[in-house]
Structures are given as C-alpha cells and as structure tokens.
Amino acid sequence: MSWLFGSSKKEETSTTAPQATSGIDPKLGFDPSSVADVSSIISTPGALDTSRLHPLAGLEKGVEYLDLEDEALSQMEGSQGLLPSRGWTDDLCYGTGAVYLMGLGLGGSYGFVEGLKNIPAGAPGKLRLNTVLNHITRRGPFIGNNAGVLAITYNLINATLDGVRGKHDTANSIVSGALAGALFKSTKGLKPMGYASGMMAGAAGAWCGLKYLLLG
C-alpha cells in the first residue's frame, strides 16, 4: 500500500511545482515580486498633488457627461408661457409648487390676522403668541394643500387635453379649470361642484388673460 501513498505525494509535488516556479503566491493570488517599488511611485512629479483629490477638480475642462438633448423647450403650439417649459412635466412641477407656496403664504397671512383678532383680552405674551401661531399653522397648510391638489388636477387634465388636441390654448385651460374644480368638490354635491367649477374656470381664464397681456 505504500506505493499508493508514494504516488499521491508525487502527484501533489508535480501539481504544486509550477506554482512555485512561476512565483505566484497561492494565498495572495499574484506574484509579489512583480509589484513596483513604492518609492518610485511617490517620487513621480505630481503624484501626491492634493488638488487632484478635490471634488471640483477638473471642472475647468467642462462637463462632458451631461445629456443636453433633454433641455430642448416644448415646440407645441401655444406652449410658450411666462417661463420656459420643456413639456407638461415642467408645468406640473413648477405650477403645483408655485400655487402651493402661494396658498401657504395667503393662508398663513389670513391665519395671522385671524389670530390677532382672537387674542383673549389681558392674556400674557406667551398665550398671545401661541394663539397667533395656532391660527397660522391651521390656516396656512390647509389652504396650501387644497391649492396644491387643485393645481395638480388642473395640470394633469390640461396636459391630457394638450396631447389630444395637439396645442395649448385658452380653451384647454378654461375647460381644465372647470373639470378640476368639479372633481375637487365632487363629494359635496352638485351645487358645490358648480361653484368650484365656475371659480376654477374663472381663475384659469384670468391667468390666460394675464399671460396674453404680458406676452402680447
């Protein structure tokens, strides 16, 4: 049986011999002698320049990885408004954000005035401040959120009509405002739906009239 063990030892030495002669360390997976001297790398001019590690280094060469094709403005008929727009997504984001902030500001102002009127007589300073802040935080977010929902609904309907008709005009805006107002009050009954629809249609018409005056 010894010749069996002897043959296995020979096979093991024969398989490991090429690795030993090639210089590859089986634990590291590479030949350590092939690594260059670190001192030669350090001595290279500019190798340790800390300015190359700055996050904004190399920007003077220009930014080449940006795709500027998405910056093209919308060419739909009547889509040129007060602000440059690349499409309905810009109108949705900018319009909703602007209307929400406007509603938040108007609601906060209304709450501020309401809070001043409801301050208890002879109340200390902390109670007065607390009363005003309570009215501001109650009115501001309420009006801002409602205005934001109306703006989202209006812009989605308006973008759909623009896509179907192939143009952006006053008729689309007024119809979108009427539908958005009716949908917003759809759970309150026909009468509130009619009021909201008329108010939103009037607001959309006023906005179109303002754009016409400013743009000529």
Automatic annotation (TrEMBL):
Entry-linked InterPro entries: Tim23, Tim23-like
Segments passing through the bilayer: 193-214
Domain of life, source organism: Eukaryota
Major site of localization recorded for this protein: mitochondrion
Subcellular location: Mitochondrion inner membrane
Topology versus the membrane: Multi-pass membrane protein
Region (Disordered): 1-28
Keywords: Membrane, Mitochondrion, Mitochondrion inner membrane, Protein transport, Translocation, Transmembrane, Transmembrane helix, Transport
GO cellular component: TIM23 mitochondrial import inner membrane translocase complex
The keyword Methyltransferase is annotated on this UniProt entry: no
UniProt KW Transport keyword: yes
Gene Ontology terms for molecular function: protein transmembrane transporter activity
GO annotation, biological process: protein import into mitochondrial matrix
Similarity annotation: Belongs to the Tim17/Tim22/Tim23 family.
Function: Essential component of the TIM23 complex, a complex that mediates the translocation of transit peptide-containing proteins across the mitochondrial inner membrane.
Subunit structure and binding partners: Component of the TIM23 complex, at least composed of TIM23, TIM17, TIM50 and TIM21.
The protein, known as: Mitochondrial import inner membrane translocase subunit TIM23
